[in-house]
Amino acid sequence: MDPSQTPEPTDTAGNAQPQTLAATAAETTPENPWPLHLLSDKLKAHIERAPAAWVEGQIIEFNRRANVSFITLRDTDAEVSLPLTVWRAALDRLDAPLEQGSRVVAHLKADFWVKTGRLSMQTRDIRPVGLGDLLARLERLRQALAAEGLFAKHRKLVLPLLPQRIGLITGRGSDAMKDVLRNATLRWPSVEFEVREVAVQGVHAVRQVMDALQELDGHPDVDVIIIARGGGSMEDLLPFSNEDLIRAVSAATTPVVSAIGHEADRPLLDDVADLRASTPTDAAKRTVPDVAEELQRVHQAQEQLDRCIDRLLARESERLAAVHSRPALANPEGMIQVRHEDVSRWSDRAHHSVATAVTRDLDRINHFRTQVRSLSPQNTLDRGYAVVQLKDGSVVRSPEEVGASAALRIRLARGELQATSS
Asked: What distances in angstroms separate CA 109 from CA 48, 84, 87, one per listed residue?
């Protein structure tokens, strides 16, 4: 019989009354509900359509029986767990028995038991995740993130020379926290810390470390952030290779120092951090300067500065003495005397040149005067000659130029005569 159909209800007289069930769950009402078996059948059909999936997690409970075992599998990065049913055949295929705490991958198919309404996860196959598999997976992630440029040197931030406040992310009451605080304070007593104690392994580690990193990165007084843990196994350090955490560190605007303390198979945090320290103690030493060493450097710098100043003063004193020994400064009057003699000599020479030029020009003037006088008409008159002029002052050169009874003017050396032509 179709599960969506139920026997028709009867009245008090036994007569059947027809009733149609709702086609979907949304159409059910208090007056027209589904029978329970119909809902169970539909749930089973829906769940059976879901495909099987491979999942990864950590075994936190393992109850082995003869034919069937029950395992509780927990997510490695979140507080999520799931009970599994594993048949003996799947466990017999393993080379080594599973243990509580093992990291595994399992092929799961959901199954709904109609009679009891119980959902179970049937495990078709289960395999342990070995260290080699983890390392290979981390290496693939390392190469992918490196190809994106998250590990590039130009992205690294420079640590401040003297941080005033250091953000510290570490385990609760851990030796790593004590090492960082003690060594940093010994090196620079005035340094201050913003400590965030978080889980550094387990399912809560990634989220708590990321929350603490975000909080310290937004703190206006934190100059550098140290993420510290005192080493551990490869499985314990897996949170520090989580992709979400790596990207959060890469996006931080405050310099981040990785101090996980694991030399072999180091986590990806060491690659993305702005500075990698081998241990928490090394992180403290590389983050803050040693006050004793800095004072010694200051003293050495002062001594070097004093020596440089002494050498400069000595060199300049020698140059000043050499300048003083020059004749111009040793006997400055001599230079003035030489210039005075030059000026006197040049003055005498100028006066002599001017007097000579004047005498020479006077002689030339007298010579010109003599020449002019020798050519003067007066000089001709002085020798006994006379000049005859007409009334208009023109000189008579020929008798034909003078008419009869013309008035004439005769100019002599001294005086003149009036005459009339005949």
From this structure: 8, 10, 13
CB 286 within 8 A of CB 188: no
Domain limits, the chain: 25-129, 135-289, 378-420
Architecture of domain 135-289: 3-Layer(aba) Sandwich (3.40)
Nearest to 56 by CA among 139, 133, 144, 140: 133
- Which residues touch 215 (CB under 8 Å, ≥6 apart)? 196
What does each C-alpha distance from 227 to 149, 218, 245, 406 come to in angstroms? 22, 16, 12, 146
Give the Cα separation of 206 and 211 in Å (integer). Answer: 9
So what's the architecture of 25-129 in CATH?
Beta Barrel (2.40)
User: How confident is the model over 370-384, as pLDDT tens digits?
Assistant: 888 777 777 777 777
Contact 263, 230 (CB under 8 A): no
Q: How do residues 98-139 score in pLDDT, each as one tens digit? A: 887 778 889 999 999 888 888 889 998 888 886 666 777 788
Q: For residue 250, give Cα distances in angstroms to 154, 236, 256.
A: 12, 22, 9
Rounded to whole angstroms, the Cα distance separating 283 from 288 reads: 9
